[in-house]
Design a protein that fits this description.
With 153 residues, this protein is an alpha+beta fold. Helix content is 20%, strand content 33%. A hairpin with a 2-residue loop joins β2 and β3.
Length: 153
């Protein structure tokens, strides 16, 4: 059965994971992550560090993990008219949902939530535009799998 481990809201503009960048250093080619993506990943990791007790071991050291994300992007000015609905709007334009998921999971990996993001076996992601008064944010829920107790069944 799935058991909720963490339910958190991270305030900040979601950022999609861009392509890795490369530069030449002498005879070698080095890869790096763009600065805006690093800041976003550190925002996610830092926020989750604050939510869990200080530990050196992951909260979910092994086993399957389920991740549920509601990603709220800023609402553009063109959707702030009186005739536009005030609540959140589903978003079907860039940034691609899979790229935002990648950067968010990399950010979660910076906090000791799971041992490896390969443990994530179930993902539910919704991408929204904020309500007119809302702030850009990510609402996330992380679950771990626990075998049901046979004595209780």
């Amino acid at each position: 059965m799935w058991h909720l481990v963490l339910d958190d809201v991270v305030i900040g503009k979601p950022v999609a994971k861009g392509r890795p960048r490369a530069f030449r250093a002498g005879k070698m080619i080095r890869m790096y992550t763009p600065e805006n993506v690093k800041k976003y990943e550190n925002l996610i990791g830092g926020s989750l560090w604050a939510e869990i007790p200080r530990r050196s071991k992951p909260v979910i050291p092994e086993g399957p993990v389920r991740l549920e994300l509601d990603i709220f992007h800023p609402r553009p000015q063109r959707l702030m008219r009186l005739k536009d609905p005030p609540g959140p709007l589903m978003m079907n334009v860039k940034p691609d949902i899979d790229n935002v998921l990648k950067s968010t999971m990399d950010g979660i990996s910076k906090a000791p939530i799971w041992h490896d993001d390969a443990q994530v076996c179930s993902v539910t992601v919704n991408q929204w535009r904020c309500s007119k008064e809302g702030k850009p944010r990510i609402e996330l829920k992380i679950y771990e799998w626990r075998e049901p107790d046979c004595e209780k069944l």
